[in-house]
Amino acid sequence: MSNWLFDWLFKLSGWKVSGNIPYHLKKCIIIVCPHATWVDFPVGVGVRSILKRKIYFWGKKELFQGPFGWIFKKLGGYPVDRTKHTNLVDAIAEIYNSKDEFYAGLAPEGTRKDVKELKSGFYYIAQKANIPIVMVGFDFVNKKVMLNEPYYPSGDFEKDKIDIAKFYQTVPGIQKSWIKNYLKNS
């Protein structure tokens, strides 16, 4: 999903990438924070192009409706219906298990508003598919996208969410309630 236009726009806008997804890693779920503005999406598409990886994304189904829905599909989106209890974790884990190589990203905050907790589906998908989580931080202060080393969940979300919060605490400009909430008891 590399594209010279996305590469050029990403670089022209002054963004840089710090880190990479190891090339030996065939599958992972990528979590991106903060989900702060509509700018997240074009920056993410630029990062994907710079990394020269075919990275899909999970997004709310409403993005895929209306006159521009086809664009999100064409750019590698998978719609998610968040209004129903549909066993989505199992369905997504099965997608990972059915493929030899698959990378997909999502915003675990679930909204651009401040939240006290992350949506935990990404964690349970990683567990069920036996894949690592790659944490990506958008440093809007320095226009830098920070990629962390793959993180393998231990099976104890209460413990692992502290590690996740510690990574995102290092990303300049992120002042999110969920980080403070996760770290208050560590």
TrEMBL record:
State the signal peptide span. none
Pfam family membership, one: Acyltransferase
Keywords, sorted A to Z = Acyltransferase, Transferase
Superkingdom in the source lineage: Bacteria
Keyword match Transferase: yes
InterPro entries referenced in this protein's UniProt entry, alphabetically: Plipid/glycerol_acylTrfase
Q: Which GO terms describe its molecular function?
A: 1-acylglycerol-3-phosphate O-acyltransferase activity
The segment(s) forming the Phospholipid/glycerol acyltransferase domain are 29-141
Pathway assignment reads: Lipid metabolism
SUPFAM superfamilies found in the cross-reference section = Glycerol-3-phosphate (1)-acyltransferase
> Which example biological process does GO assign this protein?
phosphatidic acid biosynthetic process
Can you say what this protein is called? Answer: Glycerol acyltransferase
